[in-house]
Structures are given as structure tokens and as C-alpha cells.
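Page 37, top half.
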Amino acid sequence: MNTRNTARGPSRTAPSRCINKELVLFALACFLMAGCAEARSRESKKLIEFDTGRTIEMKVGNTVLVELPGNPSTGYSWEVISIDNSVIQKTGDVKFTTNSNVIGSPGKVALRFKVVGAGKATLKLGYMRVWEKGVAPVRTFLVDVIAVK
């Protein structure tokens, strides 16, 4: 042990530096673990066309990304037909991506939803032309969401 004799008695400088380093490392570890736990509580689940008919369980605060095939140049778009907004809500705009530079090429349409409350909700989407009233969607996507706290 490193000690010095002074008028007040021996001093232990080296151990106090170690304690400070240990406290800093402990605080850093706690901070990192809390960040990882927070990230897990905001997980996202991606659903695709083949997930239709499934039941998924999600935590409140998590997001659901639904990615479906589409082609806006045909006039068709994926629209929410039914949703329980007390459990799950649509967030943001619909995003369309294509791997081709050719105008009118098909691609993927992404819709994002956030789980906002506990309960069970059915999310139903339809691929339709919104101006065609009374016409059934040409395709539908349906998923049951069980939201837990």
C-alpha cells in the first residue's frame, strides 16, 4: 500500500484512485445496460405478405413494419381498412421503394404502426384504388395484434 507520513497521519492515495476508477466503470456498465434494456423495449417487427392471417404479440411502445408488394403507378395503394387506434396506430407516411430505374416498376410499400395500448386489435389493409367506391380490394392483408405492457 502506498502511504505517506504527513502531519495529519498516513495518506492512502493509490486505493482512492482505484475506487474512483471502479465507480466510473460500474456507472458506465449500468448506463450501457439501461440503454440496451430501453432499446429492447422499443423493438420492431417486420411483417411481409406471407404473414397475413398471423397473430403476433407485441409490447406497448414497439413498432410493426408491414412491407407489401405494390405499384403506385397502377393507381392501387395499400390502405388501412380497419384498425383499433386504442391499441395500434399508423405512424408516418407510406414509403415506396423499387430496385429499378424504369418508370412504373413495381416495388415494396412500407407502412409503419406503433403499439400504443394493451389489448387485442385486428389490423386489416386493402390493396385498392381509393376513388373506386363500392369495389372490394384486389388483395388484403390481415394480422391480429396482441399488445401487452
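Page 37, bottom half:
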Amino acid sequence: MKSNALPKKIAVLMGGPGSERDVSLATGRGVSKALHSLGVVVIDVDTGLMKSNALPKKIAVLMGGPGSERDVSLATGRGVSKALRSLGVVVIDVDVRDENFPLPKDVDLAFITIHGTFGEDGQLQKILEDRGIPYTGDGVEESRTAFDKILSKEKFQRHSVVTPEWEVIEVGQRPKIPVPLVVKPSRQGSTVGVVIVKNQSELEWSAPKNSGAAGGEAVASGLHRWRRNRKKSE
């Protein structure tokens, strides 16, 4: 490790099939959290779920959720549930409506199929970790950062990742970035609230609409400079 620098990506192996599985999971989560705080990309690997490439025996499929993408999340969950059953897995379908959803303690894995708010923003991940249930997808901090457009943009810039020019706008505020641009709620999933603004007249309704949908904030990303920079690089 040159200059005492940490590796950029670290896999934390935790759990295992032995009698000390619980304490190993707790240790692994602690190490993972510490590495995250140092800016390392961490991959949490529960080795207890990897024996002979076998699927977990009992999987809870978490679907629905309280957010605006509930319907598509239910459809996704049913599809995943059907596929897992075809592989001989014992599947428990869980319709999540709030943070107090029931979940049997003997499940081997929670398969998250909830789109958008609550399912992808770290909230559900935190609940599952507190309950000691392994789950699919990224961890709490990764989910929170990836879901929040402001946090993501800031991280891109800190690590010199090329990203379109952007700014945060509040309710009723007009972006300073020249059109064309994209306005996106800062904390919504998929394409919820996305508006492509092609001319000045469209700004009158796109900014207030999207800012409100994000709970007061939206992110405006410019397209003109992005396209121009892409042409130069090509």
C-alpha cells in the first residue's frame, strides 16, 4: 500500500457457517462501517450464504413499500418470488407498508424488490441490519448516497468523476444553468419527477413541480456543456 493509502475496494467477509456466525456478522458490519467512513468502496460478503453455490433455503421477498413506486414494486416482487420458487426455495412474500413490517426470524435472506423511497434510500437496509437479517443489494450508506442526487454529485466531484454541470434549486427557484437541462427531485427513484427542459418557457413549471416533489430540493443538470465536452473527448 503506497503512501499508507488504503485499497480502493475491499471485500469484508463476515458471518460464515460456524457457531460464531452472529458475532462474526456484527464484527463484519463494524469493520465495513469504519472502512466506509474512510471513503473505501466496501463489498459486504456473507460467506454463510455461499456454500456450494447453493441458494438460501428460506428467502423473504420484500415488495410494495410505502413510496410512489409501490405498484411496480409489487409486480417486481411477484416476479422474483415466482422465479425463486421455481428453483425450490421456500419463499415468504412480505408486503411492506411501513417500517413495522412482519418478518420471520428464521429467514436466511431478505430479497429487496422495493423501488424508490424506503427501498433504495438506506431506510429498509438499516431496519434489516438492526434486525440481523442478511439482504440483497448495497449497504445502508451506499444506498443512501446513491439515492440522494446531491450526495452522489458531491462524491463524483470529490473523486474527479466526470459529471454534467449541476446545481441545487429550491421551490420556485430558476436554475442558473443554461438550457437545455434536466430537473430531477433530489431524493426520488427511477424517473419520478424528471423533466427535460429544452427552452426557457418550460422552466416556469418544471422547477417548482420538481422541487416540491423532492421535499424542497431538486437537482438541475446541464446538457449543453456535457454534450460539448463529450464531442471533444470523442
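Margin note: The CA atoms of residues 62 and 112 lie 5 Å apart.
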